[in-house]
Amino acid sequence: MDAPPEGNVDTESCNEVDEEKSGSDCQSMPAYMSSVLRRQYLQEMVKALPAPIQNRIVFLKNLQLEHLKIEAEFFEEVYKLEQKYQLKYQPLFDKRKEIVEGTVDPPTEKPNWKEPEHPTDNEADIEPFLESLKTFKSIPQDAKGIPGFWLTVFRNTAILSEMVQPHDEPVMRKLSDISIKYVDGHSYTLEFHFDKNEYFTNSVLTKQYVLKSTVDPDDPFAFEGPEIYKCTGCNINWEKKMNLTVKTIRKKQKHKERGAVRTIVKQVPTDSFFNFFNPPEVPTDKEEIDDESQQILATDFEIGHFLRARIIPKAVLYFTGDIVDDEDDEDEEEYDENEEDEYDEDDVPPAKGQNKGPGGNKKQSPNDCPNQ
Question: pLDDT tens-digit profile of 103-112?
């Protein structure tokens, strides 16, 4: 069956969608429709086809279903490989932990890699950061390990930095390691190891993520590989008056009749990295979960995958800047301050700094190989 003729369509004009172009060729092309309209259009398109062709399409979709079942088996094998190779990675992570903590001081070594050439640094560009760099320059020569290693890694990564509030920093400096454990049942647990501190008595805080890699019979063609569908935090044993996830509010209240004034003290939730260990519960019926909790879980799942697939295996590269969140930089390069954007009053530009995804980068699929 021949495809319908495209006609003479100005491809640049297809990027503009407004009332004047509502009847143009662009609007009749599925690629330029909204996702809801596109789905409806394509379903109607298939219904309009001759019956023999519809039957061939049914056959192809049955083939696709068989492919998805094999793909689910593939991801099961991938998970088993991840478990197997985690055992090989672990000795390297153990050495890293010893060096970061300062229990082992490695011998002097030369780099086993070739340093890439960078353009000469412009002092004017880094001048705003000189004050911040004084903190690192003031670290004594005889300091043990790498002070503030994990806090620095978090601060060097957009979405993780957003999680850490200023009042979290003192205890985050006590974070000595983040490790991962794979367990049977298609799940993994992130372990955050802390040195002794004045905030809580736990030496390890945990966060477990449960994945599923099965084709949903009610919506089989939505399958895209393993996905996190549930996570469980842990109880933090806070020391008295040291809970960083709540703040104390004192409010004066005056009695209407007697005029007496009393002070009401209450605790309310506040932003903190440690809210990460108290995620919303996922109800059995997904429809029962509210939009806010759904958004929190979606971000939480992405952070969990990001920590497992990127931060844990490549922490030192985030520390040194060999890996940076460069997508925002690319966007800024493309933006010309002298150009005036034209948009309708109803257009709302996306807000910056929101929890879009790890590091501000594009969303990473749970299928991404964690060691690429």
Answer: 999 999 999 9
Is it the case that residue 317 has pLDDT exceeding 90? Answer: yes
Model confidence over 240-250: pLDDT tens digits? 999 999 998 87
Question: Could you tell me the two tokens for 97?
Answer: 């932990």
Q: What digits encode the pLDDT tens for the residues 13-43? A: 444 444 444 445 555 688 888 889 998 999 9
With b meaning 16 or more CB within 10 Å and e meaning fewer, what string describes 5-26?
Answer: eeeeeeeeebeeeeeeeeebeb
Output phi, psi for 147, to 5 deg: -60, 135
Q: Provide the pLDDT for residue 272.
A: 96
pTM value surpassing 0.85: no
Distance CA 235, CA 207 (A): 10
